[in-house]
Amino acid sequence: MAAKTPFPIETLLVVDDSALQRLHTVGLMRELGVEIIYEAGDGHEALALLALLRLPPSLLIIDLEMPGMDGVELIQQLQARGINVPLIVASSRESALLTSVETMIVALGMQVLGALEKPLNEEKILAAMCSFSNSRASPKSNPDLPAVCEPELANAIRDREIVAYYQPKVDMRSGMLKGVEALARWNHPEHGMIAPDRFIALAEQTGLIHDLTFAMLEQAMAQAVIWNQRGFSLKVAVNLSPLSLDVPSFGKKVVDMLVQHALPAEQIVLEITESSVASNLGSTLGTLARFRLKGFGLSIDDYGTGFSSMQQLARIPFTELKIDRAFVDGAHARKNLRVILQSALDMAKRLELVTVAEGIEAMEDWRLLQESGCMIGQGYLIAKPMPASELPIWLKGHHRRLPELRPLVGVNGDSANPADETTSNGGNN
To answer: Which of 52, 196, 299, 393 is the most buried (most CB within 10 A)?
Structure first.
């Protein structure tokens, strides 16, 4: 039988104390093209079976609630023994418990396809496997690349090897482009694309982060000027390092750069993470206050991932609240995430802040955000980060998608108003 799964599964182990549930799961997986399937009644049986197999299965489906050794302990034992096999966990218990276990698996450095509520069906299993397959296919930097050294990074910044890619930010109701976020990308002449997580930390450790930040600001402002000249005015967001905010001259240099490019400050949004004001509160607050006096937008980035969100909102004159992808991706299927998401959006509305959701990858999450009143959306559902030269090409294709992105009739009482559709201004962002 030809496999119907998104990636090949040669062997499978189903761990469940219910013989009836195991039979049901085995039947589903056979329908999906898996021919070799092992079964175990609890964690102890599963570990004993795995010790006998010469090769581990391609996939484990584990029930959480079992006598003897439950699913949680089994997963911990797998990690301790170095058995890192893709997992699907299943339970009839509350979704919050499933979410917690899924988070635990990721924290253990293991591969999790999904945490599914019972009863299982073909649709749930395929959705989990498709999500995993897509994540594996996403372009990433090569982990086998040699470590980046300080002189090499300094030269890359000086020689403009590190360039700004731009990820579109669109209006949640009309779908129209309202702004972009500038993201650093290092296109190494020998090693190819190097992901930011391989050089941002080094830049901060060595003090090169200031040069890198100014390089990104310079590129973003220069590109904004080009877009303005073409009648294509967009707000451009640039990330700031907390270390840069501690430098007394930083604010003046940014303002001077803005003047040199003859840009209105309102066109630049400075994204600041929650932890950015922790080290030198007085200096940092002064810098951010001056930015607002000049007219820059200030966005609290990765909202919800730290412990000081409320405090930062009370201290800093933010104009925008950007909700971290951890609370966006999959929110349509998780009650806890939906509650947190709605709470953040309601609070931002009362504070008169623009709301931006990042990490939108599924249409179901897009619809949820529309219904919840989010203003701006960003994520792979809309577009990946791209060179500035590719943005007009993307935009032509994006316009054809507008009907599917607009609210369904009846959402918030009406449908998107075509009269509001424009890319000639920054909108609410």
So the answer is: 299
Nearest to 67 by CA among 18, 34, 113: 18
To which residue do tokens 């000639």 refer? 424
Sheet containing strand 11-15, strands side by side: 36-40, 11-15, 59-63, 87-91, 112-117
HEC-encoded secondary structure of 245-285? HCCCCHHHHHHHHHHHHCCCHHHEEEEEEHHHHCCCHHHHH
- Residue carrying the six token digits 């976020």: 181
Q: How confident is the model at residue 4 (pLDDT cuts 50, 70, 90)?
A: low
Other C-beta atoms closer than 10 Å to the C-beta of 158 total 11
Angle of the 335-350 helix axis to the 95-107 helix axis, nearest 10: 90
| pLDDT tens-digit series, residues 355-364 | 999 999 999 9
In this prediction, residue 411 has a pLDDT band, given cuts at 50, 70 and 90, of very low
Q: Measured between alpha carbons, how far is 248 from 391 in angstroms, rounded to an integer?
A: 35
pLDDT band at 299 (very low <50, low <70, confident <90, very high): very high
Which residue shows structure tokens 């992105």? 405
Report the C-alpha gap between 38 and 15 in whole angstroms: 9
